[in-house]
Structures are given as C-alpha cells and as structure tokens.
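Below is how a single chain appears once it has passed through the pipeline. First comes the sequence as given, then the structure the pipeline wrote out for it. We keep one example in the README because the format questions we get most often are answered faster by looking than by reading.
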Amino acid sequence: MTKTAKGFSLIELMVTVAIVGILAMIAIPGYRSYILRATRAEAKQALLARAADLERCYTRNNTYLDAPTTPCNVAAHLPDASGAHYKIQAGTLAANSFVLQAVPVGSQVADAKCGTFSLDDKNTRGASGANGASDCWGR
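Resulting structure:
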C-alpha cells in the first residue's frame, strides 16, 4: 500500500499566489479610478447646492453678498472639509456675481483628469484638469 500525500504542493501554492497577484494588479488601479470618478459627483452636487443657496439669497435681497438681517452668509453653508474629498469655497463673491470652487483635498488631489471644479452665477461650469469641463461635468 502506498500513502498519498494530502494538501497542496509548494508549486500549486506559488501558482495560486501569482494568479491572485496578477488579478490584484489589474483590479486595484481600476477600483481607484472608479473611486476618483465617484467622488467627483460629490463635488458637483455640493457646488450646485451652494449655488442654489446663493440664488435664493439673491432673489430675497437682490445681491449675493451677505446682508446682516438674512441668513445668506455663504460661509455658513459651506461644508467642513474633514472627511470630504473636496473643499467647497467661494472663489469670487460680489453683489451681482459669484464663482464657487470645489478644490480636491486628501486622496482626491490625485485626480488630474478633472482637478478643481468651478461654477458661477451664469451656470458656467469649469474644471481645471486635463479632461476639461465638458467631460468632467458630463454632457
């Protein structure tokens, strides 16, 4: 009677490790790209929400600037950047115009395709990255 070995050989184990490594090399960059694209939606949504706040203030006060008796202070409506992928800030704020920006922070800084998003009072949408505004904001 011969005994048969039970378990895996070293070669079988090394082939499995190599296959898992190759799959990880393919999957991780694709996943990272997906995360960068998905967090762009956060920036666009936040910019549009802040622009809507400013438009409401403009209809009440006929100015985008903060009036002391109204809750139109744009800084009060800007989200805290802790844990966020973008920091929303007022690039330019004047009586009859505004420009809002979504500046990437943390790991989102690696997004060279879209970079910083911008939105103004005329709904002109911009992006500082290599892909340009039309690609980054969608068609």
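The mean pLDDT is 82.

See the next section for the split statistics.
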